[in-house]
Amino acid sequence: MSKVDSKFALKVQDMFSTKSLFKQCVHKDTFQYITVKSNKEVMILQSVIEDYKWSLRASGYHRQVTFTVIKDLIKNKISLAGFELSTPKDIVHYIRAEHGLRISYQKALLAREAVLNEIRGSPEDSYKMILQFAYIWNSTTQRIIDDRNEVVIVSDRHKSICKAMEVVFPNVGHCMCLVHLLRNLKLKYKIIVDTVFHACEKAFNIVDFKHEMRLLESSVPSIREELESIGFAKWSRAYSPRRIYNVMTTNISESLNSVMLKARELPICLMLKVLRMMLQREFFE
After folding, report:
1. Cα–Cα nearest to 268, from 260, 258, 280
2. Is the same domain home to 99 and 166?
3. Please, what is the Cα angle at 216 between 230 and 250, to 5 degrees?
4. Which residues belong to any copy of the MULE transposase domain (predicted)?
5. Contact 236, 203 (CB under 8 A)
6. Which of 255, 265, 252 has the alpha carbon at shortest distance from 82?
7. pLDDT in tens, 44-102
8. Domain count across the chain
């Protein structure tokens, strides 16, 4: 430590950046003592009261401190859901400011990796648990979905997603993300107008939908066949058999991808645990 807090209580394995700070902590507890020994390697303090004998010994770390020691100093600053010392550079600054030690970037990197490996385990061990984890996750999710009749999942047009949904959630509605759909259509139809397309998909009834579709066809004559092959029910509100309201994009999942950047470095099962913790916290708050 680099300063003494008012609530600080001296205990074994405490670390101090200087000798004077160590003695200041002893003064704080109103101990009466003499300095028996003090050099670059060690300081020993001893009580001067006959009926209350005690001694304190503080040993200095060599400047070439090992990454194992660094690991012990930073392990309480790193957790599964996130950590204050996110980079080796942060660790170098922390060790210098809090403990008065100078370490290399390489040692900070090794210490960081060692702590993270202790917390998250190995990717191999995580993959051994994936079937059990997936079974629990799927059972819980399936029970929640079975209790609701109007669940709709929105995704892009990737074939593997569609096949997985047919197996895992056969009774759940499925819609195409309009952002991905429009992006793909523009690769083929360069002159498509965004506002006309969105008016078509947002129409509340079939009469309005047909009117907006005629306007869309007037600017892009061959687009109707393309959209029919996809299925109007997959992307339009008017033809959808479920209540999709105005949720027709994957914006929520894209936002999760953004906030999960650090968690994506974790082994698969721990990443899913972080995702669960994040969603539980968001829904609770």
Report:
1. 260
2. no
3. 50
4. 126-184
5. yes
6. 265
7. 888 777 777 777 777 765 555 677 788 888 877 776 555 566 788 888 888 888 777 78
8. 3
